[in-house]
Amino acid sequence: MEEINKDLKIERLRDKKLALFFTYGVSLELWEKRGLLNRELKLYQELGKYFNKIYFLTYGRNDYKFAEEFRKYNIEVLYKKSLLPNILYSIFYILYYRRELKQCDYFKTNQMSGSWSAVLAKWFFKKKLIVRTGYPLSANAKKENWFKYVLTCLVEFVAWRSANQIVVATEYERGRLLRYQHKLKIISNYVDTNLFRPLPKIAPTNKTRTILFVGRLSSEKNLSNLVLALNGVPDVKLCLIGSGESQEELSRLAKENSVNIEFLGNISHEQLPKYINQADIFALVSLYEGNPKALLEAMACGVPVLATRVRGIDNIVQHEVNGYLSGTDVVSLRQSIITMLFRLELLNKLGVAAQQKIVNQHSLNKVLTLELTNYD
Question: In the chain, what are the domains?
Fold first, then answer.
């Protein structure tokens, strides 16, 4: 890690404490199960070098098993000790850990979901609150039912009004919150470019090309259309890393359409670069995104990306500059895949440009520097 800018005057953080309020229902154990633990932890390992202490307030009853290891990073795990259901626990756990929270100087939310715990803590203990928000809760809730939509709008409104600072990942998200312009700050998701980097490819034993997806197997990822788009495209194998409710449907679709597909399950963060680097194309064909980490990590590996021209992606990928943008429908995806597979010189160019963009704009060190300015 290169030295942080001295002008930030971060020495004064040595006696400060930060509390991170986990996303509602999320635990360290869940991060580990999904192969996300080291990815999510990396930033706080680095921040722990500057703070007196960082507290993780999680929803995991088994998260005590991480406590000893995390202490070496200056992180103390405040895990769930209660049998209360999560919705009640999210309201009352600030009283369980009131001694630790009173000692803190800053509270921070990991996502908007569960932010009400941090807001309550701010009201009780009169500390500064940083609200980090990704894709808006209300946008998803609007597609489900009106009650959930109204409730999530209220959660967002209270969190934004209560925050001393609001952190968003993209310009689009900033544009939605211009009424809070004086509190807003853009900090993109980061990539550990020491881990995610170009690696030598293993020479293939056959002419089959590999298209790789990494993420949750769910409807918004539009994987059904990706499977259908590969119907009739010869010598292509689709590999999916991750888990989710769509796996059974995708397996059925692939069988019905004679698509070569492999479900690799959850892969640890440390092993991901190996899988990404062996792919010919990384595909993220979602219907919408926030600031997708998997996309940034694939680009950091110098792998050509096929992505959809949707919010949360088109601000990262420039068509035929550092990636290839497609429509979300089957016909557009099929045409884009065929074009990429038969233009090898384009693939090489896209991979090099993608890797350079991540190094220049999304490295862990750049994000850490911006993150530290939150506490000025």
Answer: 6-192+362-373 (3.40.50.2000), 209-360 (3.40.50.2000)
